[in-house]
Every structure is written in structure tokens, then in C-alpha cells.
Amino acid sequence: MIENVHKNHPNGGGTPLFKQISVVVRPKDVIAIQGPSGQGKSTLLRVLAALDTIQSGRISLLGRPVDSWGPCEWRKRVCYVPQQPAMLPKTVEDNLALVSKLHQRKFDQPLAKRLMDEVGLGDLSWSQNPAELSGGQKQRVQLVRSLLLGSDILLLDEATSALDAQSKQAVESMLMRWKEERGTALVWVTHEQEQAERVANRFWYLENGDLSETVKKDELTSFSLDQGGVE
Ligand SMILES: Nc1ncnc2c1ncn2[C@@H]1O[C@H](COP(=O)(O)OP(=O)(O)OP(=O)(O)O)[C@@H](O)[C@H]1O
């Protein structure tokens, strides 16, 4: 999906943040991105989401370069979920219905209800203003809103950083069910080694501009047989 991507450090010093990195994302992959702070994990998600520029390289999905999809279609297919939830100052329901409004689709209320239940927000009033919610509640509402887009790839930036252990487990289980049902790939920045090991089948490590990859042992055979991926 990304080939020889080169990006300079945003500090303007001319040092590379990414040095010719290439990776493929396959349906149902769960990829944990790890590495020291400031090495470009969030930036890599934004590059994949076509929200940040690169100096050279190719970003594509299903064999088509990002430019040929157009920004709106790309964002439907590749959805970035930022660490800090950005909510409309309306109701929870307005926020949940936002993506269907933006993309002229019917709001799937039963699905939204099911997902809210699954992330432990079954009792939350949908008429509340998100400003009244806790950080962890906002993070889960944002995640459900993103899932309703039905994208091929979800880019999760520390998606459970504001959650207690129980809610974190609920979110992890829901995301695992979702990717099995829908074939969605999850590319997930997490600082938690234990979480990475629980959820991921592939691991990307970013440091000094290089991306190295390891794969779970039981995945090695299928991985080497199936390098084709989404691209
Ligand atoms: N808008 C910006 N302007 C200038 N520098 C930026 C900007 N955004 C990120 N950076 C710099 O780019 C580098 C990569 O940042 P990024 O947030 O991608 O790293 P990260 O690996 O996700 O870090 P962390 O683990 O701390 O979240 C950092 O050195 C950061 O200071």
C-alpha cells in the first residue's frame, strides 16, 4: 500500500522522518505500530490517511494511487481516528449520524446502538452534548462514529489511551469482531506492549526513519504466501 515513501522531518531541518519506507496492508490485518516517542507513528497514520504530505513515494489502495480516488472517496476507504476526539458541539446522536450525513447515506441506527452497547456505552443518553462526556466516553463515541463509515482500513491513534481496563477490553473485543465480520484492516498505534501482543498479527517498529516489521509466529506461513495484500 505504501512504496518508497520519503518524508522530511516537519521541523524543517531536512532530516528524514521516513526513509523510503514500503509496507502492504491486507484485509483483516491488525498491525501494531510501535517505537519511541517522536519517531513518526502518528505522522505515518496521517500519511496513510492522505492528511499529510510526503516528499516522494507512492500510496495506493487496490492498485490505484491515492490521487485517482480523490480525497472524499479515500477518506471513506481509509479512516483516521485521532487520539484526541474531535466532536461536533451538538448531541451524541448528531455525532454518530455525522458520517452518514457527510457521505449521503442512511444512518444505521441499529448498528450504532449495537456498537455503543459493545463498547460499554449502552446506557449513554444520545441527547447529551459531547462536552458533558468524559475523555474515555468521547473516545468511544468517536470510534463508533468512525466504524459507521465502513472503511477498508481503520487507522487508530492510541484508540484506548483514555480507557480503564474493562472498557479497553470491551473496545479490543469489539474491534476484533468487527474486523472478522467486515474484513477491515486495523493499523493501530499503541504504546502498550501487552495490548499489541493481544490484538496484532503484525508489528511495525519505527525508529530513525526506518520501519522494521515482525510477524506473529503462527502467521509466518500465510504471510510469506500472501504478500499481495490490499495493494
Ligand atoms: N505539526 C507539526 N509541526 C512540527 N513538528 C511536528 C508536527 N507534528 C509532528 N511534529 C514532529 O514530528 C515528529 C513525529 O511526530 P509524531 O507525532 O508523528 O511522533 P509519534 O511517534 O507519534 O510520537 P508519540 O509517540 O510521542 O505520540 C516529532 O518530532 C514531532 O515533534
Give an account of the 3D structure.
The protein is α/β, with parallel strands linked by helices. The chain has one domain (26-53, 70-216): 3-Layer(aba) Sandwich (Rossmann fold), CATH 3.40.50.300. Helix content is 36%, strand content 23%. It has a six-stranded mixed beta sheet with strand order 6-7-8-3-9-10, with helices on both faces. A hairpin with a 7-residue loop joins strand 1 and strand 2. Helix 4 (92-102) packs parallel to helix 6. The longest helix is centred in the C-terminal third of the chain and has 18 residues, at 165-182. The radius of gyration is 18 Å and the shape is globular. Adenosine-5'-triphosphate binds next to helix 1. The site of adenosine-5'-triphosphate has 9 residues, from helix 1. This is ATP-binding cassette domain-containing protein.
